[in-house]
Design a protein that fits this description.
Elements: H1 3-19, H2 23-36, E1 43-49, E2 57-63, E3 72-75, H3 83-89, H4 92-99, E4 103-107, H5 117-124, E5 129-136, E6 148-155, H6 163-197, H7 199-206, E7 215-227, H8 230-236, H9 239-259, E8 263-268, E9 271-276, H10 281-308, E10 316-331, E11 336-341, H11 343-353, H12 355-358, E12 362-365, H13 366-371, H14 374-377, E13 380-386, E14 395-400
Parallel strand pairs: 10-12
Antiparallel strand pairs: 1-2, 1-6, 2-3, 4-5, 5-6, 7-9, 7-10, 8-9, 10-11, 12-14, 13-14
Helix pairs in contact: 1-2, 1-6, 2-6, 6-7, 9-10
């Protein structure tokens, strides 16, 4: 392999990394070009840890000699008991990192059995050589567990990798690692922004909408829910059960809102603030109503599971309203929040707080009811007029007709 071919592959990798190609495209394009240039790889694998609430990292695959079942897999935390942790400790990459070395090279065609299970599987499939590399990041460049780029290369060439093959990989793989790191950092930014800000706010922030006071007036359905008797329950629940308790109920609310197309903007202890902004008020209100139904179904299933396990249960109160709000960045120059503010938000909070007085799990404003499609509007019944704290006029509130779905 000549310098000109190495330079061509490196230039392509840099160009596509700057263009924002994803990790799979980068790995596959890189491997295809290496093979065309004469590097005898038949399998390629790249590993990059990430910063994600559920997954610790992602593995990307390329096969030149066998169809792929999947081009990518995600793995869970390696520091928590389970299959992922066990597999990690028994992997050659773990031993490579523990050794402090940058490479591990094993010929597979000159041994009777490989020292690692994955190597033995590859040997039995006909791979003749195994070569792994790790590119470590400086401490200042690491994000969470994302502190290195790992790769593995195998060949089925008789006699294994040539010296030229190994020299080419040593020069080119660091360039691939830099490109994949760039793609992974963008993915980390997206997942963190969505996890902590919400899906739509996270997208808007990453698009550059970060100026303080930059907000737009939108019409939205506002969802405000909280848990019945949370303060009293939190005083009686063991401390190690409190967070799982909150997580269980937050999960059913958030997945229901997201499943119906809404955006969760804020978690406030046991409270959830969300909005629905589908095209047209009727569609947004119908979406919120679907989310409410899905949440109630999940809530019933959750309570059955928790009771069966001897765990405390709770109910979820919900207020739904629609109106104009300001949606954008609010706060100081040092700390911003991307959320909604306005009278409609305050009224939704007050409506949710009236659930206990009205002895109902869900209450709707008259504006919400009026905006619903006619077939959904008929499912709601009035519970009377209520004076809402901080709101100038009494409002008629509605709830679901218990007879409507019978």
């Amino acid at each position: 392999m000549v310098d000109a071919e190495i330079a061509t592959i490196a230039d392509w990798t840099v160009k596509r990394g700057l263009a924002g190609d994803d990790e799979i495209s980068l790995l596959h394009g890189f491997c295809d070009r290496c093979v065309a240039a004469g590097i005898s790889i038949t399998r390629g694998l790249a590993i990059m840890d990430t910063l994600h609430p559920v997954y610790e990292g992602r593995v990307f695959f390329w096969n030149g000699d066998k169809p792929l079942e999947t081009p990518m897999a995600q793995y869970g935390p390696s520091n928590v008991d389970g299959d992922d942790a066990t597999n990690w400790v028994n992997s050659p990459f773990y031993h490579l990192l523990q050794s402090g070395e940058d490479e591990m090279h094993r010929r597979l065609d000159t041994i009777e059995k490989a020292e690692f299970t994955v190597m033995e599987e590859l040997r039995l499939e006909g791979q003749t050589d195994w070569f792994a590399m790790v590119q470590r990041f400086d401490k200042e460049a690491a994000i969470g567990e994302m502190d290195c780029f790992m790769s593995r290369w195998t060949t089925n060439r008789k006699g294994g990798f040539s010296d030229s093959d190994l020299a080419g990989l040593r020069r080119l793989v660091p360039v691939l690692g830099l490109a994949i790191k760039s793609a992974s950092l963008m993915r980390v930014a997206q997942s963190l922004a969505e996890a902590y800000l919400g899906r739509d706010p996270g997208r808007r922030v990453l698009e550059g909408r970060v100026s303080r006071g930059a907000a737009e007036r939108i019409n939205a359905v506002i969802w405000f829910s909280d848990m019945q008797g949370y303060t009293k329950l939190s005083e009686s629940i063991e401390s190690d059960q409190l967070i799982p308790f909150l997580n269980d109920y937050a999960e059913i609310v958030i997945t229901s809102v997201h499943g119906a197309g809404g955006d969760v903007l804020k978690l406030m202890g046991d409270g959830v603030l969300a909005i629905f902004t589908a095209d047209g008020s009727a569609e947004a209100c119908a979406a919120a109503l679907r989310a409410e139904a899905d949440m109630r179904r999940k809530h019933a299933e959750l309570n059955l599971r928790r009771v069966a396990s001897g765990l405390p249960v709770s109910s979820v109160y919900l207020g739904l309203h629609t109106g104009d709000v300001f949606y954008g960045n609010i706060g100081s120059k040092d700390r911003l929040d991307f959320t909604v503010v306005g009278q409609a938000v305050n009224e939704t909070s007050r409506i949710a707080s009236m659930c206990r007085s009205a002895d109902r799990d869900v209450l709707f404003s008259s504006d919400f009811r009026d905006a619903l499609p006619s077939q959904d509007r008929e499912r709601l019944v009035s519970v009377g007029r209520y004076a809402l704290r901080g709101v100038g006029r009494a409002q008629e509130l509605f709830t679901l007709d218990p007879e409507a779905d019978k």
